[in-house]
Write the structure tokens for this entry.
Amino acid sequence: MFRYIFLVLLALFFSSCSALSYSYNNKSHELVFNVSNDTSYTVKLYNPSVTPQFDGCSSFSYTLHDKSPTWGKLFIEHIDLHSNCQFNSETSGIFLYEFKENLKLKHFEQIEVKQYKNYEFYTYKINDVEYINFIYIFSPFTFTFIIDQKGVLSQEILQHFDASYHSSFLDKKRFETNYDYSLVKMNVFKGYFTKMSEDFSK
């Protein structure tokens, strides 16, 4: 019963968060990227699978998988922290570190970084031969990580910030994986984020 109520609330939350830099509409299966105050870019997913993730510091968090001819394989982890919680280390660094460690990658080299407002775009070279893209979107209490295996989504969003941008790595061999590691799910064991300490002396 609790899970059903949570899923209903989750659907309402997805449908009403258009003011955020990123949101997912569970009804229309669309990702919405608000790249400026008056411009948004909408991406239609093919057959998304959404899994709610639970933690005492986080509500309305989830992981999402999708695969389509246009975008290839996408993995998304969206984390919505309570206002009295915080990450204990640099947020995107945690996600990238766990990606490398969980897949036991021998070589994981950052070769391109682009930053615009609260969007960060990374291109990595894996084991010297394959390439993969990551998108990191953040606000004070929401953090979204996207693994973009094909790299097309990264380029499309980047071109809304810089129309002349064109990736030099889309035609390279791409790294493929069925990644399914959740920071929220594993937080109870790893302590990625915790409640802020309160000072009762005042």
In short: The mean pLDDT is 90. The helical segments are 2-16, 91-102, 152-161, 183-190.
